[in-house]
Amino acid sequence: MLAKDYRNQFIEKLTPLYDVLEAESFFYIILESFHKMKRIDLALHPDFAFTDQETYKWNQVLERLEKEIPIQYILGETHFYGLEFEVNENTLIPRPETEELVEWIIKKNEFKGKVKILDIGTGSGCIAISLAKNLPDAEVFAIDVSEKALETAKRNALANEVAVVFMLKDILKAENLEHDFDIIVSNPPYVRNLEKEEIKKNVLDYEPHLALFVEDDDALLFYRKISELAQNNLNEKGELFFEINQYLGSEMINLLEVKNFKEIELRKDIYGNDRMIFGRK
User: Is the pTM here over 0.70, yes or no?
Assistant: First the structure.
C-alpha cells in the first residue's frame, strides 16, 4: 500500500479519539521510528509503499492507539532534551515542561565544573541522564522507589553513554541521604486525586500512578520530606529544584520559606503554568 494512502486512512481512524494534528503527528513519529523517514522524505517520495508485513505492523500500532495507549509506550521510546530514552509502564513519559527544569539547572551550573547532583524519583532517568550528558564534570546520583524503573534508567544511562549512580530507596522513609550534594532536583508525584478529571485517559489508564498521584489532604508530602533532607544534605549555598503542581505555587514558596531556603524563585512553563521552583540553602 502507498504510504500516503495509508496515512489518510490512519488519520481518519484516529480522529474520533484525537484531533487531526495529533493523529498526523503520530503517523510521522511512527514513520520515523519504523522507516527512518521524516515528513519531507515522504513528500519527496510519493510512490513509497509499505510491504504487507509493514502494513500489518502499522495496523498493530493503530489498534493500540485506538485503545489510547500512549504512543511512547507502544514504540518503547521517546525523546527528551535531545536524547533518546526507553520508556515503559514502569516509568512516566517525560514532558516538555521537565525539559525546561533541566535547562534551568544546566544554565545555572554549566560553568561551575565539578558539582554533585541528586535526582530524587528518577523514573526513566531522563533528568539525571540529561544533566550528566550536559554537565560532563558533574557527579550524578539518582534515587527511585521502583526497582523496575531503576532497571530502565540504568539501560538509558548506558545507551546515552553517561555515568549515573542509581540507588533503590523510598525517600519518604529515608532518615538522611548517603552523601552531601551541591544540587538536589526532584519531579515527585504531585497530582491530587481531585485533579484526576483533568488527566487524559491515556495518562490515567497507562502511566504509573505511584509516580503521579498524592492524597488531596497532603499534596506537598514529597516536597516537605525532600526539603527536610535537603537542609541536612545540601552543601552550603546548595541548590534545590522542584517540578511542581501548577495550582500550588504559593504553597511551595511558603514551604521553602518555612524550611529556611533563600533566593526562592517560582517559574512558569511554556504553557504559562507555575511549574518549577528554586531555593538556595
Answer: yes
